[in-house]
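Quick one:
INPUT:
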């Protein structure tokens, strides 16, 4: 099959299969994946991606970071080849970096795979009366300044015409300061259940009423007692899609092969990741793509999987067990 048809997605398939067969240090390629806080969902998802790509000779170094905005900046600065970030950060980057230019961020940063929705947690203390609807000004902790949580916090302030004064510190310190009365709110955008919040006590979530301003970027959703035992009822909030992306440019040869191999390896391990990985894998659109922003190698990877199905096989049968 590899010899008879000379189509780019089959070439990608051949490379992927060979990488699995010839997996050794002699054939290994080292790349970087920028994620987020080591307790966060990005970091765990990144580790689980790297565990699978490592089996086919593509070693992804999983790097912690301040979050979405820092990851986009790292892509532009060539400090990483792959990154996970929120789509609202992507939109902000498009506005900030390409204002008054003819360039388009879609030509620079390409999406490898749409991942899951992250929920916006607007946190207060349980014992402090706080009326979000009638209060105008808040002191807010949103993690490090370059985090996606701070981008979401800015959006929440805009949606509801609030005046937020931000305190930039670690999420752990923000929660401590919230309990000490130094902050009114802590806003954390993360895939539920977020590990740092699971064991907390004395906290409550602020419900976010629906607003049309959020519809283009955010999904209306809820956080429930099944996510955090300290909740006594579901709380309405917004979710924002996260994506795995790259600035490796679309071209023939190794560049496409590298991006395609990452995508194809995740694709064929769908069942394993959903069963054994972070619960958020169950929300991932493994074959989803937007042709406008997807890397061309992604289309080749999906084409390779469809080809295998056409021959009566399942591309997940190619997943390595060791």
């Amino acid at each position: 099959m590899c010899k008879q048809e000379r189509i780019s997605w089959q070439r990608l398939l051949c490379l992927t299969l060979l990488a699995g067969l010839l997996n050794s240090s002699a054939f290994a390629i080292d790349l970087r994946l920028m994620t987020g806080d080591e307790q966060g969902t990005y970091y765990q998802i990144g580790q689980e991606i790297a565990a699978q790509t490592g089996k086919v000779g593509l070693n992804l170094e999983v790097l912690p970071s301040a979050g979405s905005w820092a990851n986009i900046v790292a892509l532009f600065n060539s400090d990483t080849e792959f990154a996970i970030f929120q789509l609202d950060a992507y939109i902000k980057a498009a506005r900030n970096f390409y204002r008054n230019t003819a360039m388009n961020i879609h030509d620079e940063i390409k999406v490898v795979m749409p991942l899951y929705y992250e929920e916006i947690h607007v946190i207060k203390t349980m014992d402090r009366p706080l009326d979000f609807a009638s209060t105008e000004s808040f002191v807010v902790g949103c993690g490090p300044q370059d985090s996606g949580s701070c981008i979401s916090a800015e959006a929440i302030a805009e949606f509801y015409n609030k005046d937020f004064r931000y305190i930039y510190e670690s999420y752990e310190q923000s929660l401590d300061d919230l309990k000490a009365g130094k902050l009114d709110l802590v806003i954390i955008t993360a895939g539920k259940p977020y590990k740092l919040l699971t064991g907390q006590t004395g906290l409550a979530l602020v419900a976010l009423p629906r607003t049309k301003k959020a519809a283009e970027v955010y999904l209306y959703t809820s956080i429930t007692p099944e996510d955090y035992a300290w909740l006594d009822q579901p709380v309405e909030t917004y979710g924002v899609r996260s994506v795995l992306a790259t600035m490796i440019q679309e071209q023939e040869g190794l560049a496409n092969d590298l991006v395609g191999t990452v995508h194809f390896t995740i694709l064929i391990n769908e069942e394993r990741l959903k069963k054994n990985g972070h619960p958020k894998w169950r929300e991932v659109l493994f074959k989803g793509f937007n042709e406008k922003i997807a890397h061309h190698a992604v289309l080749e990877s999906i084409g390779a999987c469809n080809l295998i199905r056409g021959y009566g096989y399942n591309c997940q049968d190619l997943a390595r067990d060791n």
